[in-house]
Amino acid sequence: MEKPLLSGESSGHARSVGRSASFRRRSDAIAYGSPYQKAAALVDLAEDGIGLPEEILERPNFQSAEDGIGLPEEILEKSNFQSVAKLYFFYTQLDFIWSLNYFALVILNFLEKPLWCYKSTTAYSCSDRDYYFLGQLPYLTGWESLIYEGITLVILIVHTFFPLSYEGARIYWKRPLNQFKVFCLLILVADLLFYILYLSPVALDSLPFRIAPYIRVVFFILNIRELRSSSVILAGMLGTYLNVMALSALFLLFASWVAYVMFEDTQQGKTLFTSYGTTLYQMFVLFTTSNNPDVWIPAYKVSRWYCLYFVLYVLLGVYFFTNLILAVVYDSFKGELAKQVSEMDEMRKRTLEKAFNLLDKDGVFSSSPSSFYDLSGNRKYIKKEECIELFKELNKYRTLPKITKEEFELIFDELDDSGDFKINLDEFTDLCNAIALRFQKEDTPSFFEYCPSFYHSRFSENLKAFIRSPKFGYIISFILIVNLVTVIIETTLDIENNSAQKVWQELEFVFGKGLLRRYFLQNFCKVFIQNATLMWLKDVFS
Question: Subunit comment for this entry (predicted)?
C-alpha cells in the first residue's frame, strides 16, 4: 500500500489513532482546527461540491480559529459562540431523524382514510378491499391518523425553526426557502385544526377537501437537495414551456377553425365536425395520431383532395411542432442546468479562495506575513512550505501517494506558471482540482474498528482481502446466473404443462431463499469492510 504524501502514516491510521490535533469530521476541523486543518477541510468540501453559505464565506472573521460552519457573523461575535456552535453541530447530527420524519409524512398519505370514506352511505366500508380496490395497506382510524400527524408535525416544526437558534432571525428570514417553508407549515397547521374540528362531534359537519397531503409532498421535495434542484430547473423552464404550449394551442385552434369552416356542408361536417368544440376535440386527438386515419375517412370518400389538408396537418403537428417542443424544452433544460452548474462552480471557487486566504494566517513560514495580502486583505500567494502543510492535512480526507520532497518541488515548479516560486489563487485552484480528479477519497472506517483485536486479526484480514478480490464478485455472479437459469427452465416447463415443473419449482424456491440470503450476506460483507453510510451512498441504486 502506498504511503500518504509527505507523511509517515496512512489516512486510515490517522483517523483511528485519534491524535489531539486530529478531527474526524470536516465541520469540527473548520470550527476548532488550525488554519491548515480548516483549509484542508474547505478544499475537500469544495471538491465534493459542498459549499458554505454566502454569509459565512464573506464575513471578515471567518478566519478565526473558533469559527463554525453555517453560523452567522452576529452570533460569532457574541460571547456564547461555543454554545451556538454546539447547537449547529447537534442540529446536523439529527439529520437521520429529520429524514425519517419526511418519509413518515409521505407514508401518512397512504395510511390515512380518504374523506369520502367518512361520508360513504353504502353498505361497504373502505376496509373492504374486495369492493374498493385501494391496495392492501391498513387504514388508520381518525384519531390514530390525528396522533400520527401531530407527532410528525411537531418534529417538522422543530426542524423548520431550529436554525433560528444559531442563524438568528435576520439571516433566517432573509432566505426565500425558509419563508416558503414557514408558509407551508402554517397551511399544514390550519388544515390540521380544521381536521380536528371535523372529527369532533359538535363542530364541522363536512370537510370537502384537505390540502395537507399535497403540502407534505412539497416539504419532502424542499428538504431533499436533488429534488429541490430538479424543481428549480423545472420552475426555470416554465416560461419557455408556456410559450411553446401557447404556440401549439394557437396552431390547434386555427387548424380546427379551418377544418370546421371547410367541411361545414360536407359529410365530414355532418358526422364528425358537427360543432367547433367537437372539431377542436377531434383535431386534438388527431394531433396525437390516435384517430388517424379514421377521422378523415368520410371526407376522403367524398373527394380524395380533402386528404391533403389532414396530411398537411399531421405533418406540421406531429413532425414539426412536436420536434419544436422537444428542442425548445431541451434547450431550456440545458440552460437551467448550466446555471446550476455555474452556481456550484462559483460556490466551489469561493470556498477554495477562503481556504487560500486561511493558509499561514499566523505567518508560520513567512518573515513578513502582511506582504502576502493585498489592500482588501486577500492573500496574494502561498509558499511551498504552506502547500506541504496543507497536503498533510488534506491526506485525512483523500488518499495521496508517497511523494518525496524533491518530487514535490518539481510539481510545485510545474504549477508555478508565473515562475515567481509562489502559487497564486488561480494556480492553487488548478492544483486542488487536479487532486480531486486524481485521488480518491479515503473510505470511512467500518463500525468493526471499535473491536480492533478482532477486526485486525489474521482471519479478518484474509476475509477482507477475499471480499475485495474479484473471486467474491465471481461467486455472487455465478449464484445469480444459476438462479436465472432455474427460473427460465421452470417457466418454460410451466408453459408446456410438463410434470417435471414441480422439481424445478422446488429448486427455484430454494434458490429464491438463497438469493435473499446472498443479498444480506453481500451487504454484510460490504459493511464489514467499510462504513454502512458510505455503502448506502455508493450502492443506493444497486
Answer: Homodimer.
3-state secondary structure of 112: strand
What residue type is assigned to position 144 of the chain?
Answer: E
Q: Identify the domain containing residue 98 by its residue range.
A: 94-223
Same domain, 217 and 100: yes
Residue 536 neighbours by CB distance under 10 Å: 13
Dmax (CA) of the chain: 98
Are the C-beta atoms of 507 and 490 separated by less than 8 Å? yes
How high does pLDDT run on average in the chain?
72
Whole-angstrom Cα distance, residue 107 to residue 152? 11
In tens, the pLDDT along 472-524 reads: 778 878 877 877 888 788 788 878 777 777 777 777 776 665 666 666 676 67
Q: Looking at the DSSP assignment, which residues form a beta bridge with residue 373?
A: 379
> Which CATH number goes with the domain that contains 255?
1.10.287
* pLDDT by 10-residue block (mean), the chain, 542 residues: 37 39 63 73 69 46 36 45 64 84 89 73 63 69 85 92 81 85 92 84 74 90 84 84 87 88 80 84 82 77 81 84 85 84 79 74 44 52 76 68 65 68 75 67 60 76 80 80 81 78 73 64 68 46 40
Spell out where 156-287 has E strands.
none
Task: Give dist(CA 530, CA 542) in Å, integer.
Answer: 16
List beta partners, residue 423: 382
* Burial of residue 433, with CB atoms counted within 10 A of its CB: 0-12 exposed, 13-18 middle, 19 or more buried: middle
Same domain, 266 and 214: no
C-alpha 297/C-alpha 190 separation (Å) is 57
- Same domain as 212, residue 234: no
- Residue 102 in any domain: the answer is yes
Q: Of 197, 223, 249, which marks where a domain is finished?
A: 223
Within 8 A by CB and 6+ apart from 94, the residues are none
Cis peptide upstream of residue 293 (ω within 30 degrees of 0): yes
Joined together, the cell numbers standing for residue 58 give 464573506
Q: Kindly tell me the burial class for residue 404, based on how many C-beta atoms sit within 10 Å of its own C-beta (0-12, 13-18, 19 or more).
A: exposed
Structural domain includes residue 295: yes
> Residue 472 is which amino acid?
F
Classify residue 442 by its DSSP letter.
P
Place of cell 422543530: 158
The answer to whether residue 418 is domain-embedded is: no
- Cβ-in-10-Å burial (0-12, 13-18, 19+) of 408 comes to middle
